[in-house]
Specification:
Layout (H helix, E strand, L loop, with lengths): L1 H27 L4 E16 L5 E15 L21 H29 L1 E4 L11 H4 L7 E6 L6 E2 L3 H14 L3 E6 L7 E5 L11 H7 L9 E4 L4 H4 L7 E5 L2 E2 L3 H9 L2 E2 L2 E2 L4 E5 L2 E5 L4 E5 L2 E5 L2 E3 L5 E4 L3 H27 L11 H14 L1 H19 L7 H14 L5 H31 L3
Antiparallel strand pairs: 1-2, 3-18, 4-5, 4-6, 6-7, 8-17, 9-10, 9-13, 11-12, 13-14, 15-16
Helix pairs in contact: 1-2, 1-9, 2-8, 2-10, 2-11, 8-10, 9-10
Protein name: RIP metalloprotease RseP
Organism: Roseateles hydrophilus
Keywords: Hydrolase, Metalloprotease, Protease
């Protein structure tokens, strides 16, 4: 139940802020606003404001609009002509169009700043044993390494406060096809060395469990069994929640990462291999012999037991002062925008997979997961989506705010507006492009749900 509620709350907030931006700047420029609507379809709630604007809430909340007085849309009375949108100077019309994305951008800054100011307890950036063959293992990373700083070019470095900082930088590098340079100390903060994580080798991959395993960055945690899935090999072998794994096939297990790696290695070609586990349970040592199942994940076969290992990793409180939070909010919103634009560019030239494009199902899932994690993760989710909405609306596509700004740019350069005929043709093209993008995003959502991606 929390997923649809979190999704609808996010939609309502982001759409309202976007349309409020258009509305407030239109009123400031003297344009009469006829309707401010959240959603489409049958009207569920209506109120008329003192300025004559009709505010409505409609049945289908997947969008919204602000309808302004405009001679191109219908008859305008002579005494109201000065309040028509099309009669305002070009700079005012451009400001009204740009105000929606600007409002979403401002909201993202505020929310990112709130996340930084409120702070949260998050896993410390101390790494567990990386899976065999992962980028982390090939980079020489090992259990107990504490990542202190990260760089995309080896020159400009950003401090890593905790594990989320590291994972954000890794996700950004993977989306942009860049390597990541790390500065590392031991778990106590002593010593320093550098490592290069070749994330650029995975640039075309979609974000999933297989990608996480191939990167190999997991927080250090103890080899405790947190979850056992009924009906899976782990349950059949008698493994229980709370078991602490001491050894696998006679080799001591130091952390959850090493246990995950042992499970992945438990196969001979396409055949699973029975393991011998010693676990501590209620102060007693128990020997178990689980045999994993070979399953298909992302187009390849892997060994799985149907359990989740790992204790809660060491956590640190990360928070900032008010002024620092505002600065971080502005910087993070800018970084998000630049990354999105670069990823879109990489998709257009075929350097990034179109499978990364997510639709409403993916967004709803992320909304539910962040809401379940708490207030701060949900605010971070809202900030990211608000920034995404701002960037997407500024794309130079007809039917989007960016397309209207392109019309205004043409008018400013040529001294004449885009003809009605051209606008109609471009609107059709823009609608077709948007429908194709929506169809692709929905197909990606279905593929993820079906396990095809």
């Amino acid at each position: 139940m929390i997923t649809p509620l979190a999704f609808l709350a996010a939609l309502a907030l982001l759409i309202t802020i976007h349309e409020w931006g258009h509305y407030r700047v239109a009123r400031a420029c003297g344009v009469k606003v006829l309707r401010f609507s959240i959603g489409f379809g049958p009207v569920l709630w209506r109120r008329v404001g003192r300025d004559g604007t009709e505010f409505t809430l409609c049945a289908f909340p997947l969008g919204g609009y602000v309808r302004m007085l405009d001679e191109r849309d219908g008859l305008v009375l002579p005494h109201e002509r000065a309040q028509a949108f099309n009669q305002r100077p070009l700079r005012q019309r451009s400001a009204i169009v740009a105000a929606g994305p600007a409002a979403n951008w401002l909201l993202a800054i505020v929310l990112f700043a709130a996340v930084a100011w409120l702070g949260s307890e998050v896993p410390k950036a101390v790494l567990g044993t990386p899976p065999a063959g992962s980028l982390a293992e090939r980079a020489g990373l090992r259990a107990g390494d504490w990542v202190r700083a990260v760089s995309h070019d080896g020159q400009s470095w950003d401090e890593v406060q905790a594990m989320p900082d590291l994972m954000v930088q890794v996700a950004k590098a993977q989306a942009l096809g860049e390597a990541v340079h790390l500065t590392i100390s031991d778990a106590s903060g002593h010593g320093s060395r550098s490592a290069r994580l070749d994330i650029d080798q995975l640039a075309s991959r979609t974000a999933d469990r297989r990608l996480a395993d191939d990167i190999g960055l997991f927080p250090l945690s103890e080899p405790l069994i947190q979850k056992v899935t009924p009906g899976e090999p782990a349950a059949a072998a008698g493994i229980q929640v709370g078991d602490r794994v001491l050894s696998v096939d006679g080799r001591a297990v130091a952390d959850a990462g090493q246990l995950r790696d042992a499970i992945l290695r438990a196969r001979d070609g396409d055949q699973p291999r029975t393991m011998v586990w010693q676990v501590e349970r209620a102060g007693q040592v128990v020997e178990l012999t689980p045999t994993p199942a070979i399953v298909q994940e992302g187009g390849r076969s892997v060994a799985r037991l149907g359990l989740y290992p790992g204790s809660a990793p060491e956590r640190v409180l990360v928070s900032y002062g008010l002024l620092d939070s505002i600065g971080r909010g502005a910087q993070q919103s800018w970084d998000t925008a630049v990354t999105m634009i670069r990823v879109i560019g990489r998709m257009l030239v075929g350097e990034a997979s179109l499978k990364n494009l997510g639709g409403p199902v993916a967004i709803a899932g992320a909304a539910g997961q962040s809401a379940q994690a708490g207030l701060v993760p949900y605010l971070a989710f809202l900030a990211s989506i608000s920034m995404s909405l701002a960037v997407l609306n500024l794309l130079p596509l007809p039917m989007l705010d960016g397309g209207h700004l392109m019309y205004h740019l043409f008018e400013g350069l040529s001294g004449r507006p885009v003809s009605e005929r051209w606008q109609q043709q471009l609107q059709r093209v823009g609608l077709l492009i948007l429908m194709l993008m929506m169809a692709l995003a929905l197909s990606n959502d279905v593929a993820r749900l079906a396990g095809w991606h």
